[in-house]
Amino acid sequence: MAACGEAVRGFLFEYDTPRIVLIRSRKVGLINRAVQLGILAYVIGWVFLWEKGYQETDSVVSSVTTKVKGVTMTNTSTLGTRIWDVADYVIPPQEKNAVFIMTNMIVTPNQHQGHCAELPDDNTVCKDNSSCVPGYVSIHSNGIQTGACIPYNRSINTCEVFAWCPVEDDYPIPKPAFLQEAENFTILVKNNIWYSKFNFTKRNILPTFSSTYLKNCIYDAQTDPFCPIFRLGNIVKAAGQNFQEMAVEGGVMGLQINWDCNLDRAASHCVPKYSFRRLDNKDSANTISPGYNFRFAKYYKDSSGIETRTLTKTYGIRIDIIVFGKAGKFDVIPTMINIGSGLALFGAATVLCDIIVLYCMKKRYFYREKKYKYVEDYEVGTSETYGTNS
Amino acid sequence: MAACGEAVRGFLFEYDTPRIVLIRSRKVGLINRAVQLGILAYVIGWVFLWEKGYQETDSVVSSVTTKVKGVTMTNTSTLGTRIWDVADYVIPPQEKNAVFIMTNMIVTPNQHQGHCAELPDDNTVCKDNSSCVPGYVSIHSNGIQTGACIPYNRSINTCEVFAWCPVEDDYPIPKPAFLQEAENFTILVKNNIWYSKFNFTKRNILPTFSSTYLKNCIYDAQTDPFCPIFRLGNIVKAAGQNFQEMAVEGGVMGLQINWDCNLDRAASHCVPKYSFRRLDNKDSANTISPGYNFRFAKYYKDSSGIETRTLTKTYGIRIDIIVFGKAGKFDVIPTMINIGSGLALFGAATVLCDIIVLYCMKKRYFYREKKYKYVEDYEVGTSETYGTNS
Amino acid sequence: MAACGEAVRGFLFEYDTPRIVLIRSRKVGLINRAVQLGILAYVIGWVFLWEKGYQETDSVVSSVTTKVKGVTMTNTSTLGTRIWDVADYVIPPQEKNAVFIMTNMIVTPNQHQGHCAELPDDNTVCKDNSSCVPGYVSIHSNGIQTGACIPYNRSINTCEVFAWCPVEDDYPIPKPAFLQEAENFTILVKNNIWYSKFNFTKRNILPTFSSTYLKNCIYDAQTDPFCPIFRLGNIVKAAGQNFQEMAVEGGVMGLQINWDCNLDRAASHCVPKYSFRRLDNKDSANTISPGYNFRFAKYYKDSSGIETRTLTKTYGIRIDIIVFGKAGKFDVIPTMINIGSGLALFGAATVLCDIIVLYCMKKRYFYREKKYKYVEDYEVGTSETYGTNS
């Protein structure tokens, strides 16, 4: 019991501190302070000030809606004079975090289910029925072969297929793009972000804007960097692309909204940064299915109840709205981790200077004698070293 | 060789430990132990227990499907008595991580491509042909101006346009909302999550539920917090909004599913937490395009083959399903990092107490003599201090 | 002033290093070196080499487009002989990060708005008008009840409803699936990724591929692991599922593209890893709404201008393209944090060996006397210990 109390008293009322040898030497002292200063500059300057090592970070959670505006007119032999507005060229009408605007198209109107000649290519051109296999279908087919070889046009025969007839001929892509004027269309992007860890929300339509400004502004990186309305041609140009070139085969653009915020500052400093990037492979030569296109159909019923459809292979620009960012706010844990690591690094200064002092300098043996106390192992029974207190 | 062996023997068979001066002083001892206890409490209590600093974290990878149910009837002069079911008001029929339910609409049926009077506003109202520029089109136009000024109605003349006629008149938004009953529609949300780092998967339809329960339950934060079927009106109410108000101009709701899981516990403890938030700006006065709406068209062909369309400007509530969360599981690395930083922090206790002992206390000079050993630099040739071993 | 200069000189030109007692003991020395070696092995082997603790990490930002190819033919009494191509079975025609392919369907053609008998179930079967409440509608209803009880077929009477008539009968799901051949359809997936922190972009169509290879390859985990074209049946099989079974009620598949890249190596080492997983609950017995289905309608106008629709309850496989991954690149901060923590851990070796030497070994009292210097607190006036320098 007494021994227990003695141990507790010893534990609570004792303070142990390492014994230090202070070497008064200009050279070593300056080296030591220089190394310590370097470490301090690194910890404070780089870790804390530049990289904000005292902050906890969180990723953004975002919601986006878009609205396109614009009208254009075309005049072709197939379709005649025709107006195109939002309901015609935005497909589908609403999407999450993306918007597709048709810029070019190949229309195959009035398709019926029936038998007709397949599109000519290496596999479908034929001389007689023996070249055509009934029931054959490949990945690139428009329909199921019947086995017959029939005229596709006056000069070529191809295998007959059961398909939506007439089959689509998608070889000559219209050049220039059908809806050239799409360059002038505008897209309003409304974006709401939330940093869940810090319960911080903000919208990209800043509270300082008036309705009049918002109705008429167009985004410009220099003059209107926070206007949420983007002209389609400007988006493409800012990514270093040529709109009319891209409009022919379509493509995918990224409209990136970056919300890197320092939440130790006022909320008004947390603003979006817009950037633009082309996301698909522009190089037609080294890819399959260049650009961006897909097929959709409008279905009709004629007076006899037979279903017909208009197949449209539509090329256009899909704009992916990519919202990303990190918020940082002061938190104890990362601060302590970095302080702790910094303190440990100061130990490296001591290690380095020790090496210089004890192994490299002329007076190293002298310093070693001051620093180290050698204790030999002793054999039981020898009383010489026992009890020596120094 | 012998010197090499000597060095190796010295390296392997020596153990160096710092020499310590143990100061028996109640005051300093207690201060020292108090600071060390504080640091220990911080490391164990805050870093390890509260913030779970011993865990590696991973973000959630998620997949969501939705299914809406509900039927309502409307009776208007334009459309007559009409039933609306899922295929009519969910647009598009399926979407990834979102679902749109129409609540209000402005229908412009039987539009043909042709010439008609533009909607009256500051730019389109005219007295005679000189006010209208042929070929002019602005962002807010419905069509391309022809140059003529024609009657819009008995009192106003506007510029003629080539457009889908008659042009849409979207000024009087129906109040109350057209599909008021949408408040009673229900949405089943099926969510599957995966933490890739820990290869852990779970679904929001918990295995403890029976089919009967799932067929009839409605989510309630208190009584049925894990039922995956949500009543639309309850979602809006839980976010602090008024459904009928929101239904008029539409809006965007966030249905947030939070999967913060501690994977050191049983898998049954990993359950979703649902919360609801309005994502768009409610304030109509300080924003453009308040609420949420978009236009889509249904295309028809009349008996003569002329294409007509019914344009619908549809307002509604889009529900973004936002799944987020972090899983934590014990891992050696973050544990070691935090232990290491904690150990380094103990060094701070020594630094602090050293300052108190060596600079603040009455007996500081006494303690300094016990701690420090001053070694002067010496000049070669002086044999006084050389060889003194202490 | 002089004191100030003296303090500065003291600070700059002094170097303090802890005094060390070197115990020459084989046992303790070996224990010490073994523990230090273990810590070193852990820090270098595990933290730096295995877990790449010297790297900064970043999450992937991704964009995906898909294109489906394939044609199939069906022959049923309801629809006759019919061809199905991409525009018919991919709904909607384009989606972001997902693609839905219809495999089974229940078609209810020629629906008009009107009065007809509700589908029989526990709530709708009736004997006479008293069982039917006018205006009643439940979540599972097809329409609003009128209050009348009319024949559904020759044997059952159900409540009359105002709905799209005839109501859909979705009880017998076609087995086997309607579009069995969907197993052979192919999906081209084009994926572009971006690590914003390192400004690194890459596409999943690797630059080493020729157009010919890309036109004809099919993804195979062993022979063609980087071909971006996937056969639908193979996707399902690779996830351990049976395609024909899954095609009946539909389901959700995940096509996971993992981009874990070490950006300290050449960019060519950064390649995608594809994996497949079923995301919905396969077990029909323990879930509601098994599989994956939704309803959509095609709208027509007959010659008298009355609107009709064809309602399709479509079952199919939705493939969610899930892109995830982390890139790592050498960075100073995490390296320093881990080095700092490692250095602090070396201190643990000293703590452990101290415990062994000072408390466990036979010669512990001897070692304690070498290590510790006991200093008693003194009372002012006693000059005994003051000034003793050792």
TrEMBL record, chains A, B, C:
Gene3D superfamilies the UniProt entry points to: atp-gated p2x4 ion channel (1.10.287.940), atp-gated p2x4 ion channel domain (2.60.490.10)
Cellular component terms (Gene Ontology): lysosomal membrane; plasma membrane; postsynapse
Topology term for the membrane: Multi-pass membrane protein
Transmembrane spans: 30-50, 339-361
A Pfam family that the UniProt record links to this protein: P2X_receptor
Entry similarity comment: Belongs to the P2X receptor family.
Assembly description: Functional P2XRs are organized as homomeric and heteromeric trimers.
Protein name, as recorded: P2X purinoceptor
Record organism: Coturnix japonica
